[in-house]
Write a structure and sequence with these properties.
The complex is a heterodimer of chains A (638) and B (182). With 638 residues, chain A is an alpha/beta fold. Chain A folds into five domains: 10-155, Glutaredoxin (3-Layer(aba) Sandwich); 176-381, NADH-ubiquinone oxidoreductase 51kDa subunit (Rossmann fold, 3-Layer(aba) Sandwich), CATH 3.40.50; 392-475, Ubiquitin-like (UB roll), CATH 3.10.20; 480-568, Up-down Bundle (de novo design (two linked rop proteins)), CATH 1.20.1440.230; 582-637, Alpha-Beta Plaits. Chain A is 42% helix and 13% strand. Chain A contains 26 helices and 17 strands. A five-stranded mixed beta sheet of chain A has the order 10-9-13-11-12. In chain A, strands 2-1-3-4 form a four-stranded mixed beta sheet, with helices on both faces. With 182 residues, chain B is of the alpha+beta class. Chain B has two domains: 4-76, no CATH class; 88-177, Glutaredoxin, CATH 3.40.30. In chain B, strands 2-1-3-4 form a four-stranded mixed beta sheet, covered by helices on one side. In chain B, strand 3 (144-146) and strand 4 form a beta hairpin. In chain B, helix 1 runs antiparallel to helix 2 (37-48), helix 1 packs parallel to helix 3 and helix 3 (53-62) crosses helix 4 (67-76). The relative contact order of chain B is 0.13. Classes of the chains: A alpha/beta (638), B alpha+beta (182). The interface between A and B is large, with 57 and 46 residues.
């Protein structure tokens, strides 16, 4: 009987043979990005069209497969065409019509259609071969050989998302080709649980879900517990609005999460793992189910995994739509089948968690980093990042930025590099106002803070936080008081109601904010908000409550003048808060067409045809229909 | 996704009996499993399309939990609904990215088009409207989902086109499509 590693390598050889026969040795290999976002952008139709074209032309040496998300949300769907000895070409914003043109040119005539392709960067691999892609290189090196140094990817480093957009998430053989499950087998056969924990501690890996607690120390704590029954839980309840890296990781590379959990389970002594995933992510659930089934069939999950005497299996639990369940003690209650309400800590879950047993809960991104730590070594891993924050962090870059999408940068990269370097700056030539990080628990940072490096400590010191990695760029068109109100509305709605400061305090804060945004703010409201916020921060039971005032406090700190304009001048500088708007007609621009007058529901606009119209401010209900109706920009909103 | 499988959409007695029978099988299967309540409720909602009182009572007896505990869990999680939903569930994302890119206007447009408020169902039982907190499609903001289909970069002026495309599909076909997608 050969040892587990030999067996795994043999399996990989067989996988390679199969894949060479079916996919890689083709003259042209086409991949279509097909995560949730790409599917929404029309990837399934593009996929069907390519299938149809291959059939129509009877091409035997062209293969087609799906891959996960490449992170270029604004350019989706992305179709990549690989052929030996040339740079892989990424075609963007494909439609069935466009893909037909690409097919005619690139596949049939071997002439890449530059006009429809993603712009290429300085460094390109002009001698790309499939061998290079599957070589036993460092796990993180593969991505750039496919995606090259395109401006967007150039400043990035793909560690968590190393296989997303490279491999077919529904084909385990492709995961094996990228050294899949080798870390798990190495751990199971060559290392003791203590070795694993020490390796992870040495790497400096910290929880990617927001807290930033050392993963290795957490594992060590659970390992030290003397208990036959322990659990390991993957927190995929990605509730932060604006964060979608966990969804993308699972949709693009589900096996890496399973592998991370196997390693974590072995390290702490847990034989059962749970993945708690949001029900809002049907595709991620489906891919994870497929991956678990494939792993079970291969003997990677179940009894005696990989031919060793270690047992480990994973069960999926679906969330039911409660944001607070991202908090670990609430998540445990939810898996137990109860209302997801947090409880005071200690005892920490590592001592007493699921069904009272020692439990480790890690985020998807954390688990995805584990194979990298094991195979490429903790020394290499800790060489990336800052003194206290190691490795990379994935951010979901969204809002008013040119390149929206998932970006992964080494810790310590500045916000400016992310927003302007990777993100390409603000859309439509507007002015940058703030960047919001950390979701509803985080804060808004103004331009003067753009040189803050992204790591746990620096962001917290600046008054925001890392959180799960949502990064939303806000431009001059947004009102910061309204943004604060939006987040408070969210946390107030999602507050579980167990502790009073969070339940009642957020409600009162929200009421004050609603008053301010509707023009009924009074002197002293800002101070009241700050005092309430401070109390909630210090007295709430769980992280949700403690962090809920952050968006308000940070916007007051950095944008106090906007609050004051609302309260004192009854004016919304950004022109967002409907209650504070006035609509007026600019006499020089009005041609008297009457379009506004016809739309006005009150009606409060008067004026003869071809003469300047006027709005009766006393009767105006500020619905904004005249503003939208005017074709000559003659209606002013202020 | 359990939720989208509205196997017995029509509120007929026969179907309810059939659904209850299926529910009994599910309860039996899950009875011994720890933490069974939420998965059973999710499956039940998939069967009935919502959680009628009769189903909750059956679950409470079957899993040996007090009715108040079951009702407490149902009330806590936003995915559970105790009122019948329309055949198509429209969810408008009001996550941060969608919010700053006009999700609110999209919601207003849909409300106006359907003539219902959030949490309500149209009188013809075709559409229900809900608000969601991020589908993770932030790069495509503002986004809405109809059943399991994500629609990206929705413009408030175009919402009627999306809604109408679900109006025309005959019932049997819609249910089939949904099942294929989930």
């Amino acid at each position: 009987m050969s040892n587990p590693m030999e067996q795994l390598l043999e399996r990989r050889e067989n996988a390679e043979k199969r894949l060479r026969r079916e996919k890689f040795n083709a003259k042209v290999r086409i991949t279509v990005g097909s995560a949730t976002c790409e599917n929404a952008a029309g990837a399934p139709d593009v996929f069907k069209k390519i299938e149809e074209l291959i059939r129509k032309h009877g091409l035997k040496d062209v293969t087609l497969s799906r891959v996960g998300c490449t992170g270029r949300c604004d350019m989706e769907p992305v179709v990549t065409v690989f052929s030996q000895r040339t740079t892989p070409v990424k075609y963007i914003a494909m439609t069935p019509d466009k893909v037909e043109k690409v097919f005619d040119s690139h596949v049939l005539k071997a002439i890449p259609l530059k006009a429809l392709a993603m712009p290429v960067g300085v460094v390109q691999d002009t001698d790309f071969t499939e061998e290079k892609l599957w070589a036993d290189a460092r796990l993180t090196d593969r991505f750039s050989s496919v995606f090259g140094d395109v401006h967007f990817f150039g400043k990035q480093m793909r560690m968590t998302l190393r296989n997303c957009g490279v491999i077919d998430p529904e084909d385990m053989d492709e995961y094996l080709m990228v050294r899949g499950y080798q870390a798990a087998v190495k751990v199971l056969t060559e290392m003791t649980p203590n070795d694993v924990v020490n390796t992870v501690i040495k790497s400096g890996l910290r929880g990617r879900g927001g807290g930033g607690f050392s993963t290795g120390v957490k594992w060590n704590f659970a390992l030290a517990q003397k208990n036959e029954e322990k659990y390991i839980v993957c927190n995929a309840d990605e509730g932060d609005p604006g964060a979608f890296m966990d969804r993308s990781t699972i949709e693009g590379d589900p096996h890496t999460v399973i592998e991370g959990m196997i390693i974590g389970g072995y390290a702490i002594g847990a034989r059962v793992g749970y993945v708690y995933i949001r029900a809002e992510y049907p595709l991620a659930i489906k891919r994870l189910e497929l991956a678990i089934a494939a792993a079970r069939q291969a003997g990677f999950l179940g009894t005696g995994i990989f031919g060793t005497n270690w047992d480990f299996d994973i069960e999926i639990r679906l969330g039911a739509g409660a944001f607070v369940c991202g908090e670990e003690t609430a998540l445990i209650r939810s898996i137990e089948g109860e209302r997801g309400m947090p409880r005071p800590r200690p005892p920490y879950p590592a001592a007493s968690g699921l069904w009272g047993k020692p439990t480790v809960i890690n985020n998807v991104e954390t688990f995805a980093n584990i194979p990298v730590v094991i195979l490429d070594g903790p020394e290499w891993f800790s060489s990336i990042g800052t003194a206290k924050s190691k490795g990379t962090k994935v951010f979901a870059l969204a809002g008013k930025v040119c390149n929206t999408g998932l970006v992964e940068v080494p810790m310590g990269t500045t916000l400016r590099d992310v927003v302007y370097g990777v993100g390409g700056g603000i859309r439509d030539g507007k002015k940058f106002k703030a960047v919001q990080t950390g979701g509803p628990a985080g804060g808004c940072l103004p331009e003067s803070y753009l040189d803050t490096p992204v790591d746990y400590e620096s962001l917290t010191a600046a008054g925001s936080m890392m959180g799960s990695g949502g990064m939303i760029v806000i431009d001059e068109d947004s009102c910061m008081v309204d943004v604060a109100r939006f987040f408070l509305d969210f946390t107030q709605d999602e507050s579980c109601g167990k502790c009073t400061p969070c339940r009642e305090g957020t409600k009162r804060m929200l009421e004050i904010l609603q008053r301010i945004t509707s023009g009924r703010g009074v002197e002293g409201d800002i101070e009241k908000l700050l005092r309430l916020g401070d109390t909630i921060k210090r007295t709430s039971l769980c992280g949700l409550g403690q962090a809920s005032p952050n968006p308000v406090i940070s916007t007051i700190k950095h944008f106090r003048d906007e609050y004051e304009a609302h309260i004192r001048e009854k004016r919304c500088p950004a022109g967002v808060c409907a209650g504070l708007l006035t609509f007026s007609i600019i006499a020089e621009k009005c041609i008297g067409c009457g379009a506004c007058k016809r739309k006005c529901p009150v009606p409060c606009i008067a004026g003869k045809p071809k003469e300047v119209h006027e709005i009766d401010q006393a009767r105006c209900i500020k619905c904004g229909q005249c503003f939208e109706a005017c074709k000559f920009d003659a209606v002013k909103r202020s | 996704m359990a939720e989208s499988k509205h196997l017995c959409d029509c509120q007929q007695q026969v179907d309810e009996v059939k659904c209850l029978k299926r529910l009994d099988v599910v309860i039996k299967e899950y009875r011994e499993k720890p933490g069974a309540l939420i998965p059973v409720l999710q499956i039940a909602q998939g069967l009935f399309g919502y959680l009628p009182e009769v189903a909750l009572k059956r679950i409470s007896l079957g899993l040996d939990k007090s009715y108040s505990e079951v009702a407490g869990v149902v009330g806590f999680y936003s995915f559970f609904s105790t009122v019948p939903r329309g055949r198509n569930l429209i969810r408008v994302c009001l996550g941060t990215a969608c919010y700053v890119r006009g999700g609110k206007q999209v919601l207003e447009a849909i409300k106006k088009h359907l003539g219902i408020d959030v949490g309500q169902t149209t009188p013809d039982k075709l559409f229900s409207l809900e608000v969601a907190r991020c589908f993770g499609a932030c790069g495509l903001a503002p986004a809405i989902t109809v059943n399991d289909d994500v629609h990206q970069r929705v413009k408030s002026a175009k919402v009627h086109e999306i809604i109408n495309s679900y109006r025309k599909v005959p019932k049997g076909k819609a249910a089939r499509q949904k099942r294929v997608k989930s």
